[in-house]
Design a protein that fits this description.
By secondary structure, this protein is an alpha/beta fold. It is built from eleven helices and eight strands. It has helices spanning 12-23, 36-46, 63-72, 91-100, 110-113, 123-129, 155-164, 181-187, 209-219, 235-243, 249-265, and strands at residues 3-7, 50-54, 78-83, 105-108, 134-137, 169-172, 194-197, 224-225. Strands 1-2-3-4-5-6-7-8 form an eight-stranded parallel β-sheet, with helices on both faces. α7 (155-164) runs parallel beside α8 (181-187). The longest helix has 17 residues, at 249-265. The chain starts with a strand and ends with a helix. The model has no long low-confidence stretch (mean pLDDT 96). Bound molecules: zinc ion. Zinc ion binds at residues 6, 8, 54, 229.
Length: 266
């Protein structure tokens, strides 16, 4: 089964606004449609059977509404992970509400929401997730982040979180460190209890094949899962780049979906 663990879509009525917001200040261009219909059309073309849709919000007061919508799009093709925010009062309650609604994980974006993933104010959420739900964490930087800004999503912070919660099921997105691959290598790559995904927008092709194969081999192909960051990247060309790597067929099958299926419980 082919699974993309890293996609984003929005409700039709705000999709265009979000597209403009990300293209402007965040310098991330959406190459594809950022709606439910848009991603489903792309999945039919790419052969991806399930896409994990990661929720992102700017403010704490948006969490409940975003998660209501995410739960409403859940079907055989779309697997929502709920949004979370450090300033939400009842984080454990929201995690419970998501789990009761059939949601299998949450997404954290430390940069957009300005917090460190190992901040104790996030602990109630992690405690409630236990060892069953998955937390997908943006790891590394973003194109518009300058060196003077705090590295909220530094791989070191994620390693520290794992130290506090060794049983938490974590996916460190963007090969464990977007534009921070050296730090990812130092702190996350090769560790046992963490998966990484392959999202590298606008195209995984920006990571040279030998570099990518080396990261996968060092971390362990059984702990790597296909993720694209759709609509910022293509499920077709990113899959082609991975499938051309010098890996065994069973390693590729794991990366393209089986590792995620097992880890998330799809
Ligand atoms: Zn993303």
């Amino acid at each position: 089964m082919r699974v993309d663990v890293h996609t984003h879509v929005w409700p039709e009525r705000i999709a265009e606004t979000v597209r403009q917001l990300t293209a402007g200040p965040m310098k991330l261009e959406m190459a594809f449609r950022n709606t439910v219909d848009g991603i489903k059309a792309h999945m039919r073309e790419s052969g991806v059977e399930k896409s994990v849709v990661l929720g992102i919000v700017e403010r704490a007061d948006q969490v409940t509404r975003a998660n209501d919508w995410l739960m409403s799009i859940q079907d055989e093709m779309l697997v929502p992970f709920g949004a979370m925010h450090p300033d939400l009062d009842d984080k454990a309650g929201e995690v419970r509400r998501l789990r009761d609604g059939g949601v299998k994980g949450i997404k954290l974006h430390p940069i957009i929401n300005g917090f460190y993933p190992d901040d104790p104010k996030m602990y109630p959420a992690y405690e409630e997730m236990g060892d069953s739900m998955v937390v997908a964490i943006h790891s590394g930087l973003l194109p518009h982040i300058g060196p003077e800004e705090p590295a909220y999503a530094a791989p070191e912070r994620i390693m520290n979180l794992l130290r506090q919660f060794p049983k938490l099921k974590v996916i460190a997105l963007h090969l464990g460190g977007f534009y921070m691959l050296d730090e990812a290598e130092r702190y996350l790559i090769g560790r046992e209890n963490i998966l990484i995904d392959t999202a590298w927008p606008p195209s995984l092709g920006e990571v040279a094949s030998d570099t990518l194969a080396a990261i996968i081999n060092r971390h362990g192909a059984h702990k790597v899962c296909f993720g694209t960051d759709y609509p910022f990247a293509s499920q077709v060309t990113d899959a082609d780049h991975l499938l051309a790597l010098p890996l065994s067929d069973s390693q590729k099958e794991g990366i393209m979906g089986e590792n995620a299926r097992e880890f998330i419980g799809l």
